[in-house]
Amino acid sequence: NMYAQLIDDLKGLTLVSASTLEDEVSVKSAGSIEGAKAVGALLAQRAKAKGISGAVFDRSGYLYHGRVKALADSARESGLKF
Fold first, then answer.
1. Mind listing the pLDDT tens digit for each residue in 16-50?
2. Deepest in the core among 32, 42, 44, 47, taking most CB within 10 A?
């Protein structure tokens, strides 16, 4: 499964989140690149709904390729700026 969050580090609050476990994300293989793209798009959609247009992308040590890259690219294509 894939999870993503936008967090306010100063306040310690999660602003929006998205996951392949949610009903809005309908993919056959949750751990796939398609699942990552769906999570990225949903995260960006929820961010825009809360008036968030930009964020810092913290990949937590994961290499920037595969699912991590797919999630980021999808979020960017959906309007979120990193």
1. 999 999 988 877 777 899 999 999 999 999 999 99
2. 44
